[in-house]
Structure formats: structure tokens, C-alpha cells
Amino acid sequence: MVSRKFKGIVFDLDGTLIHSTIDFRKMKRNMIKVLEENDVPNGVLTTTMITVDILEKAEYYWDLAEKPEEKRVELRAIMEEFMNQGELEAIPLVDEIEGASKALRELREQGYVLAILTRSHYEYAVEALKKIGAYDYFDVVLGRGQTPRPKPYPEALHHTAKLMGLDMDELLFVGDMHLDFESAINSGCAFIGVNTSGRGRRSWKEEVPDVLLENVAELPNYMSKP
Fold it and tell me: Alpha-carbon distance 205 to 100, whole Å?
């Protein structure tokens, strides 16, 4: 059971509020090709890895190779462009997870301050929210590169809370996969999972959240219960 004495709710985006239409495999193939040309051994990176793990693994091998920071900055910018391109191409196909925009409206009416914290491009997040008619419900929208460090590092949610004008114990984080859950644990934030990633139990690796809703549409009713 999660305490409902919160003032703000932070949401992940892809898989939580919208169906992800991003061609992640194509994006990762492009990233891996360039990284394997720049000191990362062939076969170490795969398209089944999440992008944060791909980038962290690349940094590890760059450390071993003593790659100059100037070159690293150049390669990070290339990786960023691959991600931006893949996300922006997907905007026309964005579709809300059933009941998401209605749920957000109801939560707003219940008095919650709402925010988005995503590892996706800021412009993608804004356009996706506009496409499902939910952009105006949010006080804060944070995309890739707009927090001191990204999810799952604690600074991501700490920075979000600061912008919302709330303390961590006043905040609830809602997401669809282990990266979100890990972010909440690392930052000391309460968490509710939603079972809409399409991966089933694999979304959570070894540890399933104490509260796991089938859909974000269930959240307003859950939050309104005594």
C-alpha cells in the first residue's frame, strides 16, 4: 500500500502515458555501429540493452582507451542526434495509452501538481503530450539532458521535485519499468508501477513494485481512496 498523502505526481512518458512508436532497434543499431568504430569491442553492445546501459558501457571502454574528452564530447553529440532523430520521427504515430489523458485531467482536478520526467527528447515529450491533449495538465516537463543526471540517478527526481516546489516525501513517481522503479528507490521517492510496457513481468527484472496497476487510468481512483 502506498500512502496517498502526496502533493505531486511525476510520470514517465513512453509506456506509461503513451504507446512507444520509436524504432529503438534502429536507433540502437546506429549507435552501436559508431561506438564499435570508437574503442567499444564488437559484440559487447546489443539492441536489447537500454540506451543508458549502452552509453555507460561506452564510457567504460573510453576510460580504458584513455579517449580524449574532446572526442568523447563529439561522440556523445552523435549519440544524442541518433536518439533525437528516432524520437522525432515517431511523433506522428504517438497514441495515448487508453484512459491516460482522462486520468491526468482527474488527477489535476484532485489538486495534484503534475510533472513528466523522461529520458526522451524534450521536444518529443511536448509534442507527444499535445497530441494526446494532455500537455496543459503539466507544471513541469523534463526531457533528456534537463536534469543534472538522468534516471535512474537520484538527481533526476530531486531536480524535478525542486522545480515542482515539493519535498521528496510529497512526491509520487509513476512508471512502467525497472529503470523508473530504480529511480524512485535511489531518490527516496514513493513509486507506483503500471503494467503497460508490453514486457509483462520482465519490465521489473527481479523486483516487482508493491503497488502495480494495470493501467494509469486506474490511478485517480486509487489515489482517491482513504
Answer: 25
Cell triple for residue 82?
Answer: 541518433
The answer to whether residue 210 sits within a structural domain is: yes
Nearby residues of 102 by Cβ (< 8 Å), 6 or more positions away: 217
Structural domain that includes position 60: 24-91
User: Looking at the domain assignment, is residue 3 inside a domain?
Assistant: no
Task: Report pTM.
Answer: 0.85
pLDDT, tens digit, 9 for 90 and up, residues 62-94: 999 999 999 999 999 999 999 999 998 988 999
Alpha carbons 189 and 104: distance in angstroms, whole number = 20
Give the chain's largest Cα–Cα span: 57
Alpha helices in 44-99 (DSSP H): 51-65, 69-90
Number of domains, the chain: 2
CA atoms of 197 and 43, how far apart (whole Å): 27
